[in-house]
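in:
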């Protein structure tokens, strides 16, 4: 099943947070959905403010924009890749540069040889954030540079649902038995599309290719796990392989 790309808390801490949440959320004057949105926005604003105000952060981003032939790992979470510029809104892990990548990346024009975005696009608002980010990736890529996008493959889950059996969904990594809070096949499909309000949109190849063409990309191919038009971009996460759509787009 899909996961929050920023969920990197240790199990014990996660359990404590869940207990606190169960006590806290019923007493809040706002919904958990709104609380999560506000928390995310506040963190994004603080990160952007630090990058703007703190001199050493400003110097780091100035250096980033001058770099050439870079490989970029967008919304990496705590899973950094050697040889890549690793970007994430949360920079608590070594090697991660903290920035809000929902609309843009801090790379100079035509300075990136390759950009990879794994299980993050589905977390972005589809009318404004997705077009803005894809256009900015196109700007940052050098001629013949490659953008690799990996998302949950909605078409595979819909086909598995239409097959009418639990087994078809289990082949996509759904646990046996189904989770207690996702007891039916339609619950599983809803989780892929919404993931408790963390996912904004679901994608198949046709839909993602349409968005990439609109951003200016020409050659767009459906690839596969660890097979990319630019080999270093194929550093895909094993836990996503069974459920994912892999798409490479060349500038």
């Amino acid at each position: 099943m899909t996961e929050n790309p920023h969920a990197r808390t240790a199990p014990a801490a996660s359990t404590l947070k869940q207990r606190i949440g169960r006590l806290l959320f019923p007493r809040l004057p706002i919904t958990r959905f709104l609380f999560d949105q506000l928390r995310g926005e506040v963190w994004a604003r603080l990160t952007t403010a630090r990058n703007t105000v703190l001199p050493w952060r400003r110097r780091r981003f100035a250096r980033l924009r001058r770099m050439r032939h870079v490989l970029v790992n967008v919304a990496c979470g705590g899973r950094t890749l050697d040889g890549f510029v690793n970007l994430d809104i949360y920079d608590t892990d070594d090697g991660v540069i903290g920035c809000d990548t929902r609309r843009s990346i801090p790379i100079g024009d035509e300075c990136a040889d390759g950009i990879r975005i794994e299980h993050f696009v589905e977390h972005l608002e589809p009318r404004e954030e997705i077009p803005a980010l894809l256009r900015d990736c196109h700007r940052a890529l050098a001629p013949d540079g490659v953008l690799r996008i990996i998302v949950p493959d909605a078409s595979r889950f819909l086909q598995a649902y239409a097959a009418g059996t639990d087994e078809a969904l289990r082949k996509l990594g759904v646990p046996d038995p189904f989770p207690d809070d996702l007891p039916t096949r339609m619950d599983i499909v809803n989780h892929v599309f919404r993931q408790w309000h963390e996912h904004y949109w679901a994608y198949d190849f046709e839909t993602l290719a349409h968005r990439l063409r609109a951003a200016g990309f020409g050659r767009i191919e459906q690839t596969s796990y660890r097979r990319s038009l630019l080999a270093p971009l194929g550093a895909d996460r094993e836990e996503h392989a069974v459920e994912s759509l892999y798409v490479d787009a060349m500038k």
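note: The radius of gyration is 19 Å.
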